[in-house]
Each structure stands twice: as C-alpha cells, then as structure tokens.
Amino acid sequence: MFAFLTQEARPGSGAMFDAIARRYDLVNRIMSLGLDRWWRRTAVAALKLPTRARALDVATGTADVALEIASQADDVEVIGVDPSPRMLEIGRTKVTDAELNGRVDLRTGEAENLTFESDTFDGVISAWGIRNAADRAGALREMTRVTNPGGRVAILESLEAPGLLLGPMIRFYTRTVVPFLGGLISRRKQEYQYLQTSIAAFPKPEEFHMMMRSAGLQVEVSKPLTFGACWLFVGRKTAEVPSDAEGSAS
C-alpha cells in the first residue's frame, strides 16, 4: 500500500519495498485505521468474477488482495505478481498459513511487463501499486491486455481528489500524519517521505479515466471510499482499444 524512494531504488522496483516488508502489514493496518481490509473487499467484489475464474493481482505485495480474492470465491485461481522478493516471501508464508497453496500462486513480476498471454484472466486488480509504476500508462495497458474481453480491471489507489468535503483533513493526514507514523512504526522515516509526494502526483480522477479509456477500458466505476481516503476505479475491457476518449464513469 505504501512505498518509499531512495537514491538506490526507483518507484516500483523490488528493492524499494524490500526494506519495509517486515512491518508493511502492520503499518497499513495502523495508518488506515484498519479500513484497508474493507477497501480491498470492496475492490475485489467489484471485479464480479465469474465461476471458476482466473484472476491476477498486480503488485500483490504480501498477498492481502490475492488472499481476499480466494476468500470471496472458493473456485477462483489467483496469480499474484510483485517485484519485491521479500514481500513475496512474506506473502507465500501467509498463503501457506491459509492453506491456499493450490489456488494462490505468487510470482516475481512487474506491472509494465506482464509475462502472460493476452486475454488470460477474467479479472485483474492492483491495490496501491500502479502509483509506483515507472510507466503508469504502460502498466494499465498491460493489465488490460491480459484481461479477457468483457473482464474487469480494478484499481485501488490513494490520491488527492479535489472537491471532497473532508479533502483538507485527508490531505493533512496523508501529507503529515501518515509519513510520521510510517516512519515511526517501520523505523525508516526517510523512506516514507515518498508517500506524500506519490499521492500528490497521482492523476486526478478525470485524467485517470482518460488513461483507462486509452488502454481499452470502459470506465464503469469511479468513486471515493471513506470520504476520499482512497479511490476505486473499475474498467471493463472492450473488444478493441478506442480511438478517442469517449465514455462515462459512475
């Protein structure tokens, strides 16, 4: 969910996450006040996966989203990819503890270069991952490419969306409180300064809608969760990549 930036690591790289992997889940629970679990459940449900579906979790981290997918349907096969070996190590332990090794497969991989055939998955999701991709538009195109026509791509992200009633309070929390807490809990204060800048740099909803349409997605859902603490985008893969930016969000 939360990432950092150092001179040795670019956003989205495996090395960037390895250093905070050990306390990653704890930091997320505390900084989101426990709401991250509900946000993930909501995003996974929005995929509307069919029976016996195959799903892909991009930037799976410690596998919380992959495990949520498996918990919502006992006949779904889940693959999770992430560039961080340490995060995947923790995720595999969680998968084993949940006795889901037969249904949840975690692999090393990056969002911008997914090593799957086109039209492979019934649903693709990324929670707090695409913000850190070196090529955000390219990652979105890749996620769409590997999705079956008619399947959905869900993006769960933190951003500074304008016009929300509690916007100033949320911005203060993400810019000031979250970096402080993240640094305090993880003992890596300097790295967690990246969080506030990455949230501020994420496109506004209207801009991200255009990116989704350009990638070949029809925007079905675009809405704030918990007064804008995070945002859920859901797009459905069209038969062909559109030549314009027409479409609507609900």
Question: Can you describe this structure?
Answer:
Helix content is 38%, strand content 20%. With 250 residues, the protein is α/β, with parallel strands linked by helices. The protein has one domain (14-237): Rossmann fold (3-Layer(aba) Sandwich). It has a seven-stranded mixed sheet, with helices on both faces. α4 links the parallel β1 (54-58) and β2. The chain is globular. The protein starts with 13 loop residues before the first helix and ends in a 13-residue tail after the last strand. Mean pLDDT is 81; it is low at 1-13 and 242-248.
Instruction: State the secondary-structure class.
Output: alpha/beta
Q: Globular, elongated, flat, extended or rod-shaped: what is the shape? A: globular
User: Can you tell me the number of structural domains?
Assistant: 1
- Oligomeric grouping of the chains: single chain
Global mean pLDDT: 81
Q: Which segments are poorly predicted (pLDDT under 50) over 5 or more consecutive residues?
A: 1-13, 242-248
> Helix fraction?
25-40%
Do you know the CATH topology? Rossmann fold
H/E element sequence: HHHEHEHEEHEHHHEE
Q: What is the CATH architecture term?
A: 3-Layer(aba) Sandwich
